[in-house]
Each structure stands twice: as structure tokens, then as C-alpha cells.
Hints:
single chain, mainly alpha
Amino acid sequence: MERLITPLTYAAVGLAILLVLWPTVSTGQRFLCRWGVPDPDEQQAVHAVAYLRNRRLLYPPLFLLAPVLIAPASGDSSPLTFLAPLIAGLLVAEAIASLRPPRGPRVATLVRRHWRDVVPRWAMATLLALASAAVALAVAGLIAQTWADRVSALLPADGVWRSADGSSTWSFSGGYATDIGRPTSLFALVGIAVGVAAVLGLVRLAVRRGPVGDPRVDAALRTRTARVAVGIGIAWMAAMVMGASNRLQFLRHFMVPPGFPQAPGWLAHTSATDLTGVVVLFVAAAGWIWAANPPRRLPYVRAAA
């Protein structure tokens, strides 16, 4: 029963978001105004409503599944435990909705689109910088995992280590032993690769897919898809950075009984990574807000005709 509480809680959050943000024609008109479409009519708003509804209907089931799929990889990493299911659910919802075949009449255009038309350079640079930092930390954790695996193999199954002469004992919980053997850094590398591929794929899809319906509405929705994908990607990479950093911190402070293999000396010098949490959290919040929300000027949308 306890295992169901977390996914059901996330599903309830997704349902609450769906109910609170259920799109209507009036909200569709306001949405298009924010994304650079002046005085949208009802037909344009209906297109925007379908766009939003296709995404938000996916929130409850995806928020239900995400914590179940991510839980085996989270272990000692709180950002992966609490943030990743929400971020992953949002990103997958965006991907599924974007992969659906578009409905409506196709519109020919002679203007060649580029990713810089829909995504600011600074947002893409932030995404890749966070991904690079996460890779560096995860690789360090993966190198230290060799020592962690040796320690894990020596930990007794009953949770109590006894010295050869029986004069001293050392107790530990089963979860403690499980965490040191879990390849969290490898999971982080997989998460980084999948996240970068998903975000870049969504941006490419937003740029390359054929235009449908009203050109200006199409440009607005295309821009919104790409910017939201990059914003979610920034948050995801921040979670990967914090998760990989937490793994190094966990390994660095892991206490082993006398006679066990000692941690590699360089691991002690990774203490500076403990300071990354607050900085990365600020960068992620600012990057997500600025990337996923419309700027004051949207030249690509205004130029569409």
C-alpha cells in the first residue's frame, strides 16, 4: 500500500493541474495573445485549446507512471526522488502530443525555419552547460562506483559486520547497503542522454514539421512547443546535476568498517560540488521560467502571414 501512495499523489497533482488549467475558448484566446497572435478569433482559439488539451490530458496518467519508473534509479538522490517524476511527466506529455499527426489543412511556406527562430541561444546554451556539468559529476561517480561495488560485496547479508576476533561489530540498515551498490551515476548518465535527445528532438520536430492551419497560430504554437521543451530540459538537467552531486556526497560520507577497502583519495576533493545545489536550483528555476514563457518580442510569430 505504501508503494502506491507516491504515484497516486503525483497522479492527484496531475489531475489538479488538469482541472485548474482546463483550456476553454477564452483561455485559448488569452494564450495566443501571450504568444504573439493579436486579437485571435474563435477559430484560432479552438486550435489553441486542442493544442493545450492534448498535453494536459496526459498529465494524470504520466504523473502516475513516472515515479514508478524512476524509483529504482533514485536511491540516495532526493532531486531524482521528488523532482524528476514531475519533470519527466511534463516532458513526455510534450513529446507524445507533438508526435501526434497534425489535423487541419496544410499550408505551404517558402520561409526556411531555424531553431534560433523559436528558441533563444542562451536557453540552449544553459541546457547544454547543465548537461555537461551533470555528465562530469556522473562520470566521477561512476569511477568511484568501482570502490563502492567492492564495499557492497563485502557487507554481510544480516546487516551486522563482526571483526575476526569478535571484539567489535558494526551495524547498518539494508537500505544503506543497497544504496551503495546502486549504480545511480549510470542511471544519471542515461537520464542525461535521454533528456538531451528528447529536448533536441522536440525542437527539431517543432522546426521541421509542416505548417498547419493559420500561419500565425502555427508559428505561435511551434515556438511555444520548442521553448517549453527547452525549459523543461533545463529543469531536468538541473535535477541530473543535483542527483549526480548527491551521489558523490553519499559516497564521500559512506562509513566503512576497519579492514574494508578505503574510498579513493580524490573523492574527498569533490566536496566543492556540495555547493552546486543552490546555484543549480536557481539557474533551473530562472531558466525554466524565462525559456518556457513568451518574451516581449516574438519576431518569428509576428512575421508569419
